[in-house]
Amino acid sequence: MAPSQPVAHDSKAHVADLYAKLEHESLDLAELPVEEAVLTSAPNVPPSTTRDYPVVLKVDLTATIKKTQLTGAYKYEQWTFNDQVPGPFIRARVGDVVEVTLTNKDESGMPHNIDCHAFLGPGGGSAVTTTEENQTKTARFKLLCPGLFVYHCAAAPVPVHIANGMFGLMYVQPAEADLLPVDKEYCVMQSEWYHEPPEKG
């Protein structure tokens, strides 16, 4: 299992501690149950995870391009994960091993990948998930820290892939407890579309 997201800290000791934790908490993946992740579209959020044990959580994502009618006058060619913007909301638990499978169905020939800020190590998994057209790659990442994390395509040029729609959220629940229960949870992300004036006639 290759670590894969940058650690925002300039202390080498801190980084060493994180990698030591990763090694100490390594699990025999063959012993873990396997679950398919429940993926939802904004503003919906998957239900809270009630289990008290880690699993191999399978997440299937597909990079696609689709033309969307933004308004009566405006269409936009969106770059998407699973034909939606933002990409699917992913819910997991500290200790889970996320098995991400990315398939690139972008017929333009552009490469795509996943950079998830919940994954430890350089690039958040982008180096091992970069896929060319009609290619599929799978990688596994152990979740060590709770929180709400963004994921996005980090293929160059990164800002263009994000601006065109290739981003989403992953919520990693704490191992011991989650947020207090509420009547309804929502996923909200902010973004803009930049486009040319509509064609006349």
Notes on the protein architecture:
It is a single chain. The chain has three helices and nine strands. It is mainly beta. It has one domain: Immunoglobulin-like (Sandwich), CATH 2.60.40. The chain is globular and about 60 Å long. The N terminus is likely disordered. It comes from Meristemomyces frigidus. Homotrimer. It holds the Pfam family Cu-oxidase_3. Keywords: Copper, Metal-binding, Oxidoreductase, Repeat. Its EC number is 1.7.2.1.
Main sheet record? 5 strands, mixed
CATH fold-level topology: Immunoglobulin-like
The number of domains is: 1
* Cα-to-Cα separation, first versus last residue: 56 Å
List the topology elements.
Elements: H1 12-24, E1 34-36, E2 56-69, E3 75-81, E4 90-93, E5 97-104, E6 115-116, H2 126-129, E7 136-142, E8 147-152, H3 158-163, E9 167-173
Quick structural overview:
With 201 residues, the protein is mainly β. Helix content is 11%, strand content 29%.
